[in-house]
């Protein structure tokens, strides 16, 4: 896919992986709509890259539709990237009793249902875009996690949400192929994001020693680089790519 001049939407684009992805896309010539629950953060990123900002919740149809309207005003919508998500740590049976059901449902709603919500609404619009010389109209890229494969103790809700993203990648790619729309997923490992800033330095250092090579935390820019590579390579479709330095998570 040629990125110059296309319109893209990035959810969770106000910080972390989403912000890095929005910046990389803009640098490659795309016009980017940044959606985030934090309106101030979304506006700050949009101002830096010359894009547009939308305040919204990925689980709400009207919010995503409004953000897609903003994206389509920038050019032909060909990229929809889900980076919005939350982390959690709750045991199935903890000191306070069983895992709260509403907590589990919230993680599934934001991480999994939110990704599907963007995919379904964006794909419906991409299907009306003029195809390029190879018949491609666009691509949806979702963000999973290596926890989808090796979820740790306390990560049952998070792992289930990310596992669902991995599981829907191939069937979604198969279904949307007739429109010339690709679907891919990136499953990052330990990435240096604002969430990591809350940890003590010694904890961050210990985490950085876990990947086999390079022996450090991943960088948001490396995630963004992979997004661009996947978007540009038409043969990548229905695939989940681990981005983790050969890390395999232990039980805890």
UniProtKB/TrEMBL annotation:
InterPro entries: NAD(P)-bd_dom_sf, Sc_DH/Rdtase_CS, SDR_fam
Pfam families for this protein: adh_short (PF00106)
Keywords: Oxidoreductase
Keyword Oxidoreductase applies: yes
UniProt keyword Oxidoreductase present: yes
Listed SUPFAM superfamilies: NAD(P)-binding Rossmann-fold domains
Recorded family membership: Belongs to the short-chain dehydrogenases/reductases (SDR) family.
UniProt name for this protein: NAD(P)-dependent dehydrogenase, short-chain alcohol dehydrogenase family
Organism: Muricoccus roseus
């Amino acid at each position: 896919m040629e990125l110059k001049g296309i319109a893209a939407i990035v959810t969770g684009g106000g910080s972390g992986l989403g912000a890095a992805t929005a910046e990389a896309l803009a640098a490659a010539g795309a016009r980017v709509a940044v959606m985030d629950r934090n309106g101030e953060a979304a506006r700050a990123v949009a101002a830096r890259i010359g894009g547009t900002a939308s305040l919204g919740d990925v689980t709400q149809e009207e919010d995503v539709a409004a953000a897609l309207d903003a994206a389509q005003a920038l050019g032909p919508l060909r990229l929809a990237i889900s980076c919005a998500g939350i982390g959690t740590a709750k045991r199935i049976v903890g000191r306070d009793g069983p895992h709260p059901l509403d907590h589990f449902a919230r993680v599934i709603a934001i991480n999994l249902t939110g990704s599907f919500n963007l995919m379904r609404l964006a794909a419906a619009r991409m299907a009306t875009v003029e195809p390029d010389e190879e018949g491609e109209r666009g691509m949806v890229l979702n963000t999973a996690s290596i926890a989808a494969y090796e979820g740790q103790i306390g990560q049952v809700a998070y792992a289930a949400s990310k596992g669902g993203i991995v599981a829907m990648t191939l069937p979604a790619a198969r279904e949307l192929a007739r429109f010339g729309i690709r679907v891919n997923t990136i499953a990052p490992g330990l990435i240096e994001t604002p969430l990591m800033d809350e940890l003590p330095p010694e904890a961050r250092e210990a985490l950085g020693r876990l990947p086999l090579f390079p022996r450090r935390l991943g960088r948001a820019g490396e995630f963004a680089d992979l997004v661009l590579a996947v978007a540009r390579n038409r043969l990548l479709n229905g695939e989940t790519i681990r981005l983790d330095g050969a890390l395999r998570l232990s039980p805890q």
